[in-house]
Every structure is written in C-alpha cells, then in structure tokens.
Amino acid sequence: MMRFILDRMLGRMRSWLRLFGYDTIYAEEGEEDGTLFLRAKHEGRILLSRDKALVERCRRRGVRAVQIRSLDIVGQLTEVMIHLGVDPSPKMIRCTLCNDQIKRLNKDELEALREEGYDYIPVSPPDDREFWQCTGCGQVFWEGGHWENIRKTEELLRRRYMTAERLRHKLEHWIEHSEGHLESYRKAMEEAGDLGLRDVQDDLKQAVQAMEDATGWLMSALKRLKMEDSGEG
Ligand SMILES: [Zn+2]
Ligand SMILES: [Zn+2]
C-alpha cells in the first residue's frame, strides 16, 4: 500500500487519505523542504505537494512525488486517484487524527469503555453499528451521522474518476483520428502541388501545421490525465 507525506498546504487531504487506509504524514510546522525530501526517501513515502519546484527536485533525486494543482479537497483527491490510483473507499484501519492503527471493538470492550465514561456509546448498539478505537491516541470511531457524508464523497469521487477515464478515451480516439486526417491533408497538399495550384497547396500546408499543433496539445492533455503525471508545464 502506498504511503504519503504531504506538504503544509494540503492539510485537508490528510484525514481523507487515512480514512482510505493510507499511511499519511504531514509536514511539521516550519519543516524545510529538505526535511520533507529526506523523510519521503527514508520512509519510502510519496510526496504530495502544491510546490512544483519541490516536486521536481524530489523526482530528480529519485523520490516519487506528485504535484497537486486543485485548491479544493474533492479536486485534490481526484488528482491522486488519476495519477496514483488511490482507492477512495473508507477502510477503517487507520486513525484519521494520528495515523496509528485502529481496531474493531467487541461487545465487552465497548461495555468497558462505557464504564470508563464514554457515555456516547449506546448500551446495546444495533448489530450493524461498529465501533473502532485507535491503538495510539485512543480515539473511538463509529459509523455516525458523518458517515453518510463520507459515502456521498466516495460516490462523487468514483463518478469523477469515471468521467476522467472517459475523457482519456476520447482524447486517445481523437489523437488516433487526427493522425489519419493528417495523412489525407498531406496527400491533398501534394495533389494541389501536382496541379500547380500553389495557393491551394499553401493553405493545405497551414492546415497540416495546425493539425500537428492540435494533436500535440491533445497528447499533452492525455499525458496529464495519466498515472504519474510528469508535472511538466
Ligand atoms: Zn489515533
Ligand atoms: Zn474524423
């Protein structure tokens, strides 16, 4: 499973990635870029950052890094799905607060917690309601009211991923298609030349150039929609 280190501008991604089960740490207050790089390298973490220069430095020195461009959390999570294949389903294995492991509580453990004063734990929880506790910070989690919001976000993210996938297929199709069209344009250009129609030939030459440019842009867009975005441009 991938592990992450986030820069300080990506704070909201932290709890979501942990909810999805990924071991995710966050830059400490005042931590230098160099420290982030070293932690990523030594702990085998992928660096996620809004800072393009930092991402490029990491890559040059052999650390996996992805530049995050979106400002909103849904956009940011969409980017890590597209570029790294992050799975957006809640796993309930990791504490969203401290990143430690969480474990499911059985009836006796729940009863013990109630006696300790955790009075929000119902006396006999419905059978389908599960509780977990963090082995590190002790925080108790359960499928409460916020759970519906988590499920909605998961669905939204899956829909967005499918839209991105369809866009990728369209781009692939258009690129293939424009290569076919380019062939015909070049042929027409030659024919016009053979007929001595220089003005027609010149216009077709422009069309070939424009089509080559368009194909280049489509290829660039496709590259950005693929895994491990190069981060260029
Ligand atoms: Zn915890
Ligand atoms: Zn066509």
Low-confidence stretches: none
Largest sheet: 4 strands, parallel
Shape, per Cα inertia axes: elongated
User: Order of strands across the widest beta sheet?
Assistant: 2-1-3-4
Helical run tally: 7
Q: What is the tally of beta strands?
A: 7
InterPro entries: DUF8180, Mut7-C_RNAse_dom
Domain Mut7-C RNAse: 2-152
Pfam families: DUF8180, Mut7-C
Protein name: Protein containing DUF82
Verbal overview:
The chain has 233 residues and is α/β, with parallel strands linked by helices. It folds into three domains: 82 residues, Rossmann fold, CATH 3.40.50; 46 residues, no CATH class; 67 residues. Helix content is 55%, strand content 11%. It contains seven helices and seven strands. The strands form two sheets. Strands 2-1-3-4 form a four-stranded parallel β-sheet, sandwiched between helices. A three-stranded antiparallel β-sheet has the order 5-6-7, with no helix packed on it. A hairpin with a 5-residue loop joins β6 and β7. The longest helix is centred in the C-terminal third of the chain and has 49 residues. The chain is elongated, with a radius of gyration of 26 Å. The two termini are 29 Å apart. The site of one zinc ion has 8 residues, from loops. One zinc ion binds next to loops.
List the SSEs and their pairings.
Layout (H helix, E strand, L loop, with lengths): L2 E4 L4 H9 L3 E4 L6 H11 L2 E4 L2 H9 L4 E3 L5 H12 L17 E3 L2 H10 L14 E4 L5 E3 L3 H49 L3 H27 L9
Parallel strand pairs: 1-2, 1-3, 3-4
Antiparallel strand pairs: 5-6, 6-7
Helix pairs in contact: 4-6, 6-7
This protein binds zinc ion (2 copies).
